[in-house]
Design a protein that fits this description.
With about 450 residues, the chain is of the alpha/beta class. Helix content is about 55%, strand content about 10%. The chain contains 13 helices and 8 strands.
């Protein structure tokens, strides 16, 4: 999905008025729907539960089936109902003009940094954008490319150098030089849609005072490289986007990702900037939520990133994400979050290690056994989760296509092979990688960013 350089027409900026349903009612209705689904699925699974308990005892059977069917089914039902009830409010002012500062931490980014900044310079934002790029001990020609960008681009670019390795050190160095009300973080290899900054600021300007950050929408740029990138295109387009929308609906987006997000500068300073963590953006966001502030998500603020094209790089990235989640849970327990929605959303992360371990150590071996005619763990009943999964992805696909992509003048690439591989095999790759990330954090193994 390549970024378009065509600005959005004004007519596409305003949504129609929708019937208002309060967040409390959406939250309760979604949980009631999930409870109905859970009750129904438990009833249907009784024969499966009985057969499995004869092999591994009843408590162990409940533990396995709970991780394979009950909890995933409940969470999917909650997601589906929440997406159906979600109505993104219109912007109060679709053309804000407040001055903003953009922070870019760069380490050996000579191949990408000039193009990244050129897309920043091409924004249709009416306000001034000041870019601060922090060169974090690059050993290539990153600095030379930054000097070229200063000379050739119509953009105010300030270049800083940070000798301490680590993205959090670089961002905190840049934060010291920010004088604007809003600060945006952008990865050095991420390209912005021409209206990305405008939509990000417009969402913040249209939000209540207690909103301190808005996460942008990440899409895949290099999906045509191979099957792995094709699969990740659907993960970003459907999986990650659906979770972001769910969390944004309940005012608790759990990760204002460093790749592209907007923050209130004073809010970031009040929590002492970015922490020394492998998931620095996760821990920062949870610290902001703990202050009783809210974090939103803006699907129209689109940025395009290159995803890992080989399994080794993918494993390092996703195990890092899983490890970052555990860092966040260790620092800020869900029950210490001040709002009911963020208690629930961060609480969901508490059960993720359990789900990933059940999937890795029981579902995958159970699938292998099924091929030999042993349907103890994987059988016809496990397929019952698929319709709900496909329904949730179908709802999001239509939303992404007709609301997000249409308004951004983008087209969804034909990627049928990647879609079926995503539905059928993606979790088989992700769960073991996540388990490896939990293991790394448990035993405090060496941090690996690249």
């Amino acid at each position: 999905m390549q970024p378009s350089l065509t600005p959005i027409e004004p007519a596409a900026r305003h949504g129609r008025k929708k019937l208002y349903v309060s967040i409390n009612k959406k939250f309760v209705l979604s949980h009631l729907s999930s409870a109905v689904w859970l009750t129904f699925s438990i009833y249907l699974s009784l024969p499966w539960l009985k057969d499995l308990s004869e092999i591994v005892t009843l408590p162990f059977s409940i533990l396995i089936i709970g991780g394979i069917a009950y909890l995933p089914g409940y969470m999917n039902a909650f997601l589906v109902m929440s997406l159906l009830l979600d109505r993104q409010p219109s912007f109060k002012n679709p053309d804000p003009d407040k001055e903003v500062t953009l922070l870019v931490a760069a380490f050996n980014e000579e191949k990408t940094i000039f193009q990244t900044l050129s897309y920043v310079a091409s924004q249709d934002y009416k306000g001034k954008i000041k870019a601060i790029v922090i060169d974090n001990r690059s050993s290539d020609n990153t600095y030379c490319e930054l000097v070229r960008a200063q000379k050739e681009l119509n953009l105010e670019i300030k270049v800083l150098k940070e000798s301490e390795p680590g993205k959090f050190h670089a961002l905190n160095k840049g934060l010291q030089h920010v004088t604007t009300e809003y600060v945006i973080t952008l990865d050095a290899d991420t390209l912005l849609h021409p209206s990305a900054v405008r939509f990000l600021v417009a969402r913040m300007e249209s939000s209540p005072e207690e909103v301190c950050a808005v996460a942008g929408s990440m899409l895949v740029r290099n999906s045509r490289e191979n099957l792995l990138t094709k699969i990740q295109e659907w993960d970003y387009y459907l999986g990650i986007a659906s979770i972001k929308r769910l969390q944004g609906l309940y005012q608790g987006t759990l990760v204002a990702q460093g790749a592209f997000s907007l923050y209130k500068t004073d809010s970031v300073r009040q929590v002492n900037g970015w922490p020394d963590a492998i998931g620095e953006d996760i821990v920062l966001t949870w610290r902001l939520l703990q202050k009783e502030w809210k974090v939103y998500f803006e699907p129209l603020a689109a940025a395009f990133t290159d995803v890992p094209s080989n399994l080794s790089h993918f494993t390092k990235q996703r195990s890092r994400w899983a490890r970052g989640m555990i860092e966040g849970l260790n620092e800020i327990k869900p029950w210490n979050q001040p709002q009911i929605y963020t208690k629930y959303l961060t609480g969901v992360n508490l059960v993720m290690p359990y789900l990933d371990m059940v999937y890795t150590f029981f579902w995958i071996p159970g699938l292998m056994l099924a091929f030999f005619g042993y349907f103890w763990i994987v059988g016809p009943m496990t397929l019952f989760v698929l319709p709900l999964t496909i329904l949730s992805y179908g709802i999001l696909y239509m939303y992404q296509k007709h609301y997000v992509f249409k308004n951004l003048n983008l087209k969804v690439r034909k990627n049928i092979l990647g879609f079926f591989a995503f539905i059928l095999f993606y979790q088989m790759i992700m769960s073991p990688i996540s388990v490896w990330g939990y293991f790394q954090e448990l035993f405090k193994l060496k941090r690996v960013w690249d």
